[in-house]
Amino acid sequence: MRKIFVLFWTVLTAISVQGQSWDIITLDDSGRKLRAMCSFSEDEAFVCGYDSIFFKTLDGGLSWEHQSLKEFYPEGDHGINLYDASSIGNTALIAIGKEGDNSGFLLKTDDKGDSWNYILPSAFDNGFDDPSKNPMFEGSLKHHFYCVELINENTAFSLMQWYVGSDRYNGIFKTSDGGTNWYYCNTPTIEGNSDGDIVFVGNTGYFAGGAKSYIFKTTDGGDTWQDYTDDEKYAYIWSIKLLGEHEVFILGQDNLFYSNTSDLSNQTILPLNESFSTDIYANSSDAFITFKKHDNIYLTKDQGSSWDMIGDGSTTYIRKCDMIYNNKLYGLSDSKLYTIDSSIFNTTDLYTLQQETFKVFIEDANLLIKTDDPKSSMSLYYISGQLVTKKQFSGQVMIPTSNLTPGIYIVECNKQYQKIYIK
Questions:
Q1: 79, 158, 201, 276 - which has most CB atoms within 10 Å?
Q2: Do 185 and 157 form a contact (C-beta atoms < 8 A)?
């Protein structure tokens, strides 16, 4: 049985946008593009990106140290691009592509990045006599990994692209044994050079992205996928964010779309303050931030009716806003980290604890959440802010601890928050 410890965080005083500014952390002077950020604990996290850039913090983001992963590259370090990363507990996966005819691969750690092992494209050989489904079909080459999503220590999804002759193919693959074996997910066809993103809450997941405006959804852990692609509506999908299994933001080229229906119907169109935003961080269905392609950052707290510019015009292309880490929202740029206090939302956030109105404890290998409120909702988040599950309940809800990877979590219940540590 895993042990659970309930800890309390101090109350944060809400501060308005006025008077706040983004702090800039310059990692080096190379200008290499940062693409992903992952956390293992309150102390340890890493950022990575193009041309092998990789920095790690051991003090909660106060300082960042360059680390080389070259010893783990099986074919040399030329043209190494770290496109995406995902972490849960002590485990992380990095999706890597390489320039030219060389193949990319996945890197995996189970000890918070102290050591890494690579997963080569050969692990994706599924025996299909079909070049569009088997990346190890005879004559295949130039395998590139564009995105990865960890579900737990053993389960993950990844998007790979490969060539057979002059024909280019893309596929989403799933592993259930920690990365030893991967199988092809029978999704609709993905054409072209399709960078994208895979996000999951429980068994519900989405693949979204690219110039084709792909959106695929699964509700059975990747066995079947429904196609919601709409090129005319979205024009180009930059980002997708989940607030729940069926509550989603889709960032298109000129508009932001919000839906809380299982089939993505009845979408609310939220015109962007500026077009060509590259990412979104959503604190709730009302409060979120978008990042303009080059120089401005905008915040709304009324679902897009009004916007405040919280950038000063000096940012250099924030590509990703991956997480809130230790009370700070992180934006990833060119060899720089932009951080700002999460209280800019001026609402209760994942790191705010007010009066305790619910109890969290362990009983018979279950995480129990109890409240006197007959109509309650709860959400469970990883320390990174990634949603694990979201439920409506009356009085009590149980979550088996066997389904939870050891690590730090945030429990939200009726807009109140507690931090828990499961090991």
A1: 158
A2: yes
Structure-block tokens of residue 243: 């607030």
Write the DSSP symbol of residue 210: B
* CA dist., res. 117 & res. 175, Å (int): 16
Question: C-alpha 57: how far from its chain's center?
Answer: 19
pLDDT tens track for 205-222: 999 987 789 999 999 999
Distance in Å from the first CA to the final CA of the chain: 9
- Side-chain-side CA neighbours of residue 279 (13 Å): 18
CA angle, 230 then 236 then 240, to 5°: 85
Place of tokens 């230790």: 326
Q: Six-digit token pair at 125?
A: 């050989």
Residue 172 CA to residue 133 CA, distance in Å, equals 9
293: its two tokens: 């392609």
Q: Are 77 and 86 in contact (CB under 8 A)?
A: no
Phi, psi of 212 (to 5 degrees): -85, -5
**In sequence order, what E strands does 139-246 have?**
140-150, 156-164, 167-175, 183-184, 197-201, 204-209, 214-218, 226-227, 239-244
**Helix or strand or coil: residue 275?**
coil
Alpha-carbon distance 359 to 372, whole Å?
Answer: 10
Q: What percentage of the chain carries pLDDT values higher than 90? A: 38
DSSP 8-state assignment for residue 271: E
Taking all residues of the chain, what is their mean pLDDT, rounded to a whole number? 82
3-class DSSP assignment, residue 48: strand
Tell me the two tokens of residue 41. Answer: 């604990």
Q: Which residues pair with 106 in a beta bridge?
A: 95, 119
Q: Per residue, what are the HEC states of 352-400?
A: CCCCCCEEEEEECCEEEEEECCCCEEEEEEECCCCEEEEEEECCEEEEE
Give residue for tokens 């399709």. Answer: 194
CB neighbour class for 312 (10 Å; exposed up to 12, middle 13-18, buried from 19): exposed
Pull the structure tokens for residue 88.
């849960």
